[in-house]
Amino acid sequence: MVTDVPSDAPSDAIVVFGATGDLAFKQIFPALLGLARDDNLNVPIIGMGRSKWSSDQLKARAADSLAKNGPHKPADAEATKRLLQDLHYVQGDYGDPATFKRLRKQLGDAKRPLHYLAVPPSSFATVADGLAGSGCAASARLVLEKPFGHDRESARALSRLLAQHFPGESIFRIDHYLGKEPVQNILYTRFANSMFEPIWDRDHISSIQITMAEDFGVQDRGRFYDETGAIRDVVQNHMLQVLANLTMDPPTGEEHEAMRDQKSALLKAVRPLDPADVVRGQYVGYQSVDGVPAGSSVETFVALRLFIETWRWAGVPIYIRAGKNLPVTATEVTVHFKRPPRETFDEIVPMNSGHMRIRISPDVAIGLGVRVKLPGERMIGEDVEMILTEHAARLRSPYQRLLRDAMRGLGDLFGRDDIIDAQWRIVEPVLDDATPAYPYESGTWGPSEAEALIGSDGPWRNPRLAAGKP
Question: Is 238 annotated in the active site?
Fold first, then answer.
């Protein structure tokens, strides 16, 4: 039976499914420490897992996680002590009802738990059924890691199943990119400065590029990655969310869902991808990774061209590129402005001379590319970039913010059902083997076919090693 959680009632316990896994070790335990330190988190925290561990073993694992991944601030010692005291472990198979009976007993007097599913998507339905059958779903909130579904139909089926046990406002589909300060800053910079919005359209912008590069391979995630690929792993979620922040209309009114309403409207206007607008690649050596079958055609690189069918963006190509084993690890957006209607000084000026560059990671920067006159008698110029803001990314963990929001029932930074559906609609025509996967060498910018895709709108703007450095 579905029971609503009062919107103003914070969660009074946290249950982490997959507590012995890599995501909990690298992200969730450090985020919980941040909440204990900054928000005085003091609720039972129950780790769930199949491993035959004790609570003491989980506490040792959490302590190791915090030592290696924690923020290391003066207040951390006391916060760590409190966090470990609140931490307990329940072992069992997620398909066994007895596991969830033990969880219900461990929850004690908690009436509004938050269940964090840091488990493979194939386990979502099993866990949801187990929670409902044991009474652990009543007045609870559910946080789900991406990917939400494997394609559009499986995502819809999962939504229907979860809706049997949890109301829509109690389901939080997490995309940690939405919790990143630089991603939120895209919206803030656009809508807090009146100078940008009048030129943020097809009349002034010629094209947009978004690049998410990683200088490492799939490492020990071969089996998982081969079921996913770059399109499902980062394009369908992270990159399309960045695109929405870049191109959505301003939210109107003070309605709680106004921001997500505009994102939904924008993503529904994106033309579904055509195979002719996609280049997939696979780095040489990928098929030697443990868990990857010989002959795999899964992409570790993708470049694509999108169009938004609205008056604001009609005809403006948007290029997205994401891949592994590229030269650097960085995520960057470049908005290219059109040249003036005529070149007053009879110069041959690059088409992409004027631009705005938004660096999302690993450091944070906003730069404005302009053309200025070179010293001397001749009226000729050069392209320079003015750095509007630049700083190291010593920011609060996005998982900390998102966990806090989920505990408070705030869904603004989470994927809504219709938004997830719109994202799958965009990529579905090019999933799996819709196009060839061209080989590329590690340390390069992907297969040469990606250059042909961008054509005269290029070249691709390759992120630099660090903001302001070549």
Answer: yes
Beta strands (DSSP E) in 339-436 are 355-361, 364-373, 381-391
Query: What is the C-alpha to C-alpha distance for residues 421 and 101, in angstroms, rounded to an integer?
Result: 34
Res. 202: pLDDT tops 90: yes
Cβ-based neighbours of 430, under 8 Å, separated by 6 or more: 231, 273, 274, 275, 278, 304
- Is the distance from CB of 53 to CB of 89 less than 8 angstroms? yes
Q: What is the pTM of this model?
A: 0.89
SS3 453: helix
Q: Is 371 exposed, middle or buried (0-12, 13-18, 19+ CB in 10 A)?
A: middle
Q: Is 149 within 8 Å of 424 (Cβ atoms)?
A: yes
Tell me how far apart the alpha carbons of residues 18 and 116 are, in angstroms, rounded to a whole number.
9
What ranges do the domains of the chain cover?
13-173, 178-396+416-457
Please provide the size of the chain in residues. Answer: 470
In CATH, the number for domain 178-396+416-457 is 3.30.360.10
The predicted-structure confidence for 219-243, as pLDDT tens digits, reads as follows: 888 888 998 999 999 999 999 999 9
CATH number, span 13-173: 3.40.50.720
Q: Which of 115, 238, 336, 355 is catalytic?
A: 238
